[in-house]
């Protein structure tokens, strides 16, 4: 059977290089929180952006209704 290449979402994809030990530790953390690694990364990004808005580092207007999860 051929492997499906379709995505379960239409969200943009982000890729990053991370040291293996941090990648492995993050995977353990995600499992403990019952998250996929992808969902864990999304959660971290949302937390960072929300905190930056709260701190006044970036304007809240940068987010639009169509871009929020």
SSE topology sketch:
Layout: H1 20-32, H2 37-55
Brief sketch in words of this structure:
This protein has 69 residues and is mainly alpha-helical.
Q: Mean pLDDT across all residues, rounded?
A: 88
Low-confidence runs of at least 5 consecutive residues: none
Enumerate how many helices there are, as a single number: 2
Give me the count of strands.
0
Tell me, briefly, the overall form.
Answer: globular
Radius of gyration: 15 Å
Biggest sheet architecture: none
Characterization of the model:
It is built from 2 helices and no strands. By secondary structure, it is mainly α. The chain has a domain at 20-67.
Keywords:
about 45% helix, mainly alpha
């Amino acid at each position: 059977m051929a492997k499906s290449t379709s995505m379960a979402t239409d969200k943009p994809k982000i890729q990053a290089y991370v040291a293996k030990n941090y990648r492995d530790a993050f995977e353990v953390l995600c499992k403990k929180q019952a998250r996929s690694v992808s969902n864990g990364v999304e959660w971290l990004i949302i937390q960072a952006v929300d905190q930056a808005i709260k701190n006044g580092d970036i304007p809240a207007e940068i987010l639009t209704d169509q871009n929020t999860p």
